[in-house]
């Protein structure tokens, strides 16, 4: 039997929350983010090899449930992810996600993974990777507006990839900012809690907006932001949800992951399709310039794209292939592939305790 076919029949590796925690801690979170960003850059560089589409989204008043598929012809990945901002009011996660990585040639799954932690890691790695191309030289200060679940990951990614040393926090709930400051203690970052957005962004070379409310909001208006900064706008991710003033977008050079999806879900949904944007893969491949001068205002209108999940799942799969992992008996393994009914007739070895 071919080694890969034999591998497929051994069961599907599962990376649950505990396994992901152990994996990240073993590698080291900053090393993990740097290596993941390298994987992302490699995949964005081969953009044309991917079969791409906007994600499927099922919207409701309380949130959204999405499926995010993509394939490069060898591997296929798909993530299930939700976004329900009010979940935190009842003690639940805003985002609950999991994903599958599959072999295209056979259709068999080769990895199942949690995607709450991994989504936060890949989002942070993507943000910092884009900023490597667009942030001002010698960036040292990051403003984080909205201090929810993504914040610590963003701060550490910018530290690891850009050398950021100072983080300024603002959230309408000061407890959220206090949470971030506590979690980043010992990280080597200087972390300050600010009382206003203006205080947080004053002197910052990079501004990250990451708010969760499902509404058209103006976290940053044009008159608040000086020329020469880079804005990492990652909170707008569904129709009817924005963070940036339209006038601010019009002042800037705007960069996106996959334009057809960002037109639906990003901050640029406020503008008509004549407004020009640049897809990030064009920077990686040298097709378009990034920051052209220190006075330029740049914005990354990031909504999260399936390629980023694909890169993250393949990176994790490479890491766990070197070690034993929990495997799920997810696919039937009868001797005759055509005789599925025989699986029901097989004797069970399970003993029932009385």
From TrEMBL:
Report which residue ranges the record marks as coiled coil: none
Looking at the record's lineage, which domain of life comes first? Answer: Bacteria
User: Entry's Pfam families?
Assistant: OCD_Mu_crystall (PF02423)
| Protein name (database record) | Ornithine cyclodeaminase
Taxon lineage: Bacteria, Pseudomonadati, Pseudomonadota, Gammaproteobacteria, Alteromonadales
């Amino acid at each position: 039997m071919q080694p890969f076919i034999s591998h497929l029949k051994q069961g599907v590796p599962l990376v649950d929350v505990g396994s992901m925690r152990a994996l990240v801690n073993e590698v080291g979170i900053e090393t993990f983010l740097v290596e993941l960003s390298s994987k992302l850059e490699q995949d964005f560089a081969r953009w044309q090899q991917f079969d791409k589409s906007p994600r499927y989204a099922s919207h409701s008043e309380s949130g959204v449930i999405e499926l995010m598929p993509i394939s490069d012809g060898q591997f296929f990945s798909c993530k299930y992810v939700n976004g329900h901002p009010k979940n935190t009011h009842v003690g639940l996660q805003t985002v609950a996600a999991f994903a599958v990585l599959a072999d295209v040639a056979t259709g068999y799954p080769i990895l199942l993974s949690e995607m709450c932690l991994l989504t936060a890691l890949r989002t942070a790695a993507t943000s910092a990777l884009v900023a490597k191309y667009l942030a001002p030289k010698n960036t040292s200060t990051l403003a984080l507006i909205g201090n929810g679940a993504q914040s610590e990951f963003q701060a550490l990614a910018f530290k690891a990839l850009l050398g950021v040393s100072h983080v300024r926090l603002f959230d309408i709930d000061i407890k959220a900012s206090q949470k971030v400051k506590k979690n980043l203690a010992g990280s080597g970052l200087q972390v300050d809690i600010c009382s206003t957005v203006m205080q947080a962004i004053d002197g910052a070379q990079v501004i990250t907006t990451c708010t969760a409310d499902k509404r058209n909001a103006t976290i940053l208006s044009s008159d608040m932001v000086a020329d020469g900064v880079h804005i990492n706008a990652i909170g707008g991710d569904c129709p009817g949800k924005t963070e940036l003033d339209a006038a601010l977008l019009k002042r800037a050079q705007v960069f996106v992951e996959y334009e057809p999806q960002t037109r639906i879900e990003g901050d640029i949904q406020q503008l008509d399709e004549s407004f020009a944007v640049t897809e990030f893969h064009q920077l990686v491949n040298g097709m378009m310039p990034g920051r052209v001068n220190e006075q330029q205002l740049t914005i990354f209108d990031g909504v999260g794209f399936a390629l980023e999940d694909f890169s993250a799942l393949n990176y994790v799969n490479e890491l766990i292939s070197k070690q034993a992992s929990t495997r799920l008996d997810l696919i039937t393994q009868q001797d005759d592939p055509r005789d599925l009914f025989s699986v029901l007739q097989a004797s069970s070895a399970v003993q029932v305790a009385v």
